[in-house]
Structures are given as C-alpha cells and as structure tokens.
Amino acid sequence: MTPEFSTVRAGDELPAVIRPPITITQLVMYCGAAQVFDPVHFSAEHAHASDFPDVIVNGSMRVAFLSQLMTDWIGTAGHLRRLGCRHRGMVLLGDRVVTRGRVLSTRVEDGVGLVECEIWNETETLERADQGTALIALPLGET
Amino acid sequence: MAISERNKSASLDSPSARAADGIEAVVADAQDLVGRVIVPRTTVVVDRSAVTALAKAVDDRNPLWLGGVEGEVPRAMPTFVYHLVPRSFDVTRDERPRPLIELPLGSPVNGGIEYEFSRPVRVGDELHVETRVHSVTLREARNGRIVVFVAETVVDAADGEVARYRHTTLYRRPKQPEPEAVRDDA
Known about the structure:
The complex is a heterodimer of chains A (143) and B (186).
Chain A: E1 17-18, H1 24-34, H2 44-49, H3 59-74, E2 79-87, E3 98-109, E4 112-122, E5 130-139
Antiparallel strand pairs in A: 1-3, 2-5, 3-4, 4-5
Chain B: E1 4-5, H1 15-19, H2 23-30, E2 37-45, H3 48-58, H4 63-66, E3 101-102, E4 109-117, E5 126-141, E6 144-157, E7 160-172
Antiparallel strand pairs in B: 1-3, 2-5, 4-7, 5-6, 6-7
C-alpha cells in the first residue's frame, strides 16, 4: 500500500528488507536471468583465481536489492524516479544482506510529493556495503 | 594493445598510449572516446518470462512484476533496464567476459550506478537502448590514483525517454614489481 505523502517525515525509517544468506542457487538464477556469465559469480575456483576471497555477488543484484526496498515501500501508486549507489565493499556467497533506508527530506513539486531517501545494503561485516540515495514521487491525495 | 573495446569503430590504440605507461596518458587517450557509442542502438521487446525470471532471482515477489495486480499489465522491476544491453559471451570457455572498455590498467571494478526513471517499463514495451562513453577522469583515492570511467545508457520508446543510467567502472594501475637492488660491485 502506497504511503500517504502527508504522513512521511524526514528521519522516518523505511521497512527493512531482510534476506537469508545468499546461495549459489540464487546467484546462478540471477546470472541466467540477467545474462551475465562471469564465473566469479558462481565458481569459487574462478573467484580465487581473480583474487577474490570467495564467490562474489553481482553488483547489479545489490542495486536491485536497493530498488526492492523502495518499490516494496511505495506500492502501486508511487514512482521511483531516481536511484543511485556506490559499491563500498565486496558482498560474498553466504552473506546475509539487509537493505535499509531513511527519509532525508520531503517537498512538493508540480503537484507531486517528492521524498528523498538514503539507502544502503549492510552485511555482517560491512555496515555499508552499498550506499546511495533514491527519489520517489507519491500522489498528494485528497486535500 | 593499449585500449580496446567491443565496438571496433571506437577502438583506441594510439601511439601515445602505447609509448607511455603513465596513467595520465591512458586517461588522455581514453578521453577521446567521450561521446562515442560503445553499444549500438538495439531494440528489445520486454518479455514477460524475462521480467519474472529476474524478479524471482532477486527474490522480489512484488505482484507488479509477477502479474498479480488485476487490471495492470505486468511491469518490470526498475533495474530491469540494466539488462537490456546485449552482452556477448562464449559458452565454450569458462572465462570472465571482457568489459565494454579495456584500459591498459588493472582489472576493472564496478564502482556504482545512477538511474533516472521517467516511467515504469511494462511487459510488451518496445524499447531502444544505446550506450555511450560519458566521461573518463583521473581521481585521487586513498590507495592511489584511479581512472573513473562512466558509460551512459539511454532507454527510450515511441513515447519518449523511459530511463537512463550512468554506470561507473574504476581502473587502477596494477602494482609494479619492486626494482631489483643494484649491487655496488656489479
């Protein structure tokens, strides 16, 4: 359900997306669906040969996790206008990724409620494996 | 080979890049690529099975992507547009795919991405996608200088722009071997 723009405040925490440990099955599914066939994403042997400590999770999947945080929150009537992030560390096979966010600011422009958020992925070892921002548009609703 | 890329028309292998091993020369040569098309315009019709496969792989069960919202044509999750760019791979070899641009530096690292979405992508949309070199810059980082390569992809349809994104790739010079000590009695 889309949140009411009038109830959104700077500092609000977004509902976190908590995931189970990332499996090889998920990575293989993702590589197939995304048509990204880099063996460091599903073969420990290839990951080690490229100097990674283990199989690494695709950066684009980590961005999809951030996107999911926003689209889960905004429901069917909200629109994700902007999403950006920097990768700050490696996410590896077996990591538990928790995606969190917080409202930074709100404003009204051209009859639409805009909400700027900071968003991030964290693991057991990295507080901010990925860090970014998102801008969403929410309907203003009845006045 | 100093700099190579999949699109040979935009390849760069200039004398200055070959002759110099300085990172500035690599950046100067790579900056000639700014504005060049590195993935030619391609048309893709958004397929429902591709949308659901990606959503399931991410474990994103939003009914908007899975066709569970009555009266709504299924949408694609926003980052689906990243996967519209055709990628080449060779099923006969277990090798890392070549990046869009190869600079004569160390292995590239994914730096991040910035998306702008004008409207949702829906199953059945006919989309056109094209990627160009947006910028090449040299930046001082904590562990030395890095080359920041940004490619911009624009996705449009008959009704105008649908999305665009800038994808950042970071290149660092590989560590040089320590020079051998010169013996005084040599």
